[in-house]
Amino acid sequence: MWSFFSRDPSKDFPFDVGEPIPGLEDKSVWSLHKAKKKGSGEEVSVFVFDVKNGSETQLDVAKAAVKRLKTLRHPSILTYLDSLESEKVLYMATEYVEPLETHLTQLSKEGHQRELYLAWGIFQITRALSFLNNDGNLRHNNVCMSSVFVNSAGEWKLGGLEYVAGASEGTGLPIKILPVLEKYDAPEKCDSSKQRFVTKCSTDMWGLGCLIWEAFNGPLPQQAQLKDLGNIPKQLSTVYCELVGANPSSRPNPADIITRCRKLGGYFKNDLVDTLLFLEEIQIKDKGEKNRFFSAITPQLDNFPENVCRHKILPQLITAFEYGDAGSVVLMPMFKVRGTALQLVKAQQYMHI
C-alpha cells in the first residue's frame, strides 16, 4: 500500500527522457533534453526543470511557461505535447527541436540558401509575435535567440514563454530572474519617463530587433552592440533600426512589418517564403494556380535547405499528389526532393503514364 503512495509519478510520464541538448545553459530555467515517446519511439523534446535545486521564483516562471504553452496554438509557436510535475522535477514535452543558436552554427556561413532561410525564420517569429500582440493581446517579454527553437523541418518556433503577460497589465516590464537576459531588456525598462509611450508590441519589437541582430551576428555580447548593424542586410536595415529605436511608440507593429516586407523588393519577398506560404494555403488555390506553382518550383529547390525540402515541402507535395487535383505536374518537384529516378519510374507505373 505504502509503495503505491511513494511511487515516483515521473515514471508515468509517457516519454523516455534522454541526454541533454546544449545551448540553453544560463539562458533559461530549463534544460533541454532529447526524448522518445514510449511505445512508438517518436522523437520529441523535453524541457526539464530541477525542482529540488531550483528556487521558488524559478519554479513559478517554469509553471507559467507550461500554462501558456498549453493554451497557445500557432504554426510558429512551439508545439506543446504533455507535461508532468513532481516533487523533484517539472517536465514539459514538445515537438522535437534544437536551440536556434545551435541550428545556425550548423548552417553554411554564407550563400543564397542561408539568406533565403534566415528571411523565412525571421518571418515566422514576426508572425508569431503578431499573433501574440494583436490577436492574443499579450506580450512575450523575452524575445531573443535563446527563446527560439528549430524543428526537424527547419521551422523557427517561438518558445521561452516564462514572462508572457497581458498587454493590459500595465507598462512595467517583468524582472528577468536570469542576469544574462537583462541585456535584451528594452531601454524604457530603466527610464520611467518613456514608459508612458510603451505600446502592446513595443517591448517584443525591441526583442525582435535583438533576435535579428543575433541571427546575423551571433550571440549579443552587450546591448551597446545593437548600434553596429554588422552583417544585417541592407534590405532589412531600415526595419531593424526602427525596431531598436529608443522611442517605444515609434517601433512598428509586427503585422505592419510583414505587410511591408512581403511587398516586391521587401526582405520577406523571396522564393523560399513564397513557396512555403503557397503550400500553407494550397487547399484554397485553384487548379491553374497549383499547376503554375508546381511547374516553377523544381529549379528553385536547389536553393532551399535540405531539411526544409525533405520535412516541410515534400510532405505537402505528396499530399497534393495523393489527395489533390495537381496530377502528374507535381511529380517532378516531388522526386527532385526524393532524389531518385527509380521512385519516379514507380510513380509513373502507379499512374499508368
From TrEMBL:
Gene3D superfamilies listed in its UniProt record: Leucine-rich Repeat Variant (1.25.10.10), Phosphorylase Kinase, domain 1 (3.30.200.20), Transferase(Phosphotransferase) domain 1 (1.10.510.10)
Alphabetized PROSITE patterns for the sequence: PROTEIN_KINASE_DOM
Domain Protein kinase: start-end pairs: 18-268
MF terms (GO), sorted A to Z: ATP binding; protein kinase activity
SMART domains assigned to the protein according to its UniProt record, in alphabetical order: S_TKc (SM00220)
Pfam families in alphabetical order: Pkinase
Biological role: Regulates COPI-mediated retrograde protein traffic at the interface between the Golgi apparatus and the endoplasmic reticulum. Involved in the maintenance of the Golgi apparatus morphology.
Family stated for the protein in its record: Belongs to the protein kinase superfamily.
Name of the protein in question: N-terminal kinase-like protein
Organism this protein belongs to: Cryptotermes secundus
